[in-house]
Write a structure and sequence with these properties.
InterPro entries: Znf_SWIM. This protein is of the alpha+beta class. It has six helices and five strands. It is globular. The mean pLDDT is 88.
């Protein structure tokens, strides 16, 4: 598996969640169980982030998109669903270093928010988007 995509079973589960949510505005228990089974301990906190509408889709005029997730700690994390990356410490440790998890709760919240139509929308200029990206780099140094 290359790091940019989820396993087929996870993709299918997210598709089923999207379909169920479009039809009934809720996620059935069997799909919630599937979420917990596939994504482990990230599932419930990710759903909490979705409920709190913590995910913002940031889009520039050129069509570049990134997601910002307000974490439970109050810190804003930047997620890139296109390359399956988050700036949080848990992603760096559990996903990249130890390969214990497929993703962190922030990226899962992005996928779930997209499936459930719960993303907030923010249009920014190219310069603002660049500043967001540069601010992330400075945090990591």
């Amino acid at each position: 598996m290359d790091g940019s995509t989820l396993p087929a079973v996870a993709e299918e589960l997210l598709r089923e969640i999207k379909k169920a949510f479009q039809e009934t505005s809720q996620v059935p228990d069997d799909l919630l169980l599937g979420l917990k089974f596939i994504f482990g301990p990230a599932a419930v906190p990710a759903l909490d982030l979705v409920d709190q509408r913590s995910v913002t889709r940031v889009r520039s005029p050129s069509g570049r998109i990134l997601y910002q997730v307000l974490g439970s700690s109050g810190k804003l994390y930047t997620c890139y669903s296109s390359c399956h990356f988050c700036t949080c410490p848990a992603f760096g440790f559990s996903v990249l270093q130890k390969s214990e998890s497929l993703l962190c709760k922030h990226i899962l919240a992005v996928y779930l928010s997209r499936a459930m139509g719960a993303c907030q929308e923010l249009a920014v200029s190219e310069e603002q988007l660049t500043n967001i990206l540069l601010a992330e780099e400075e945090d990591e140094e």
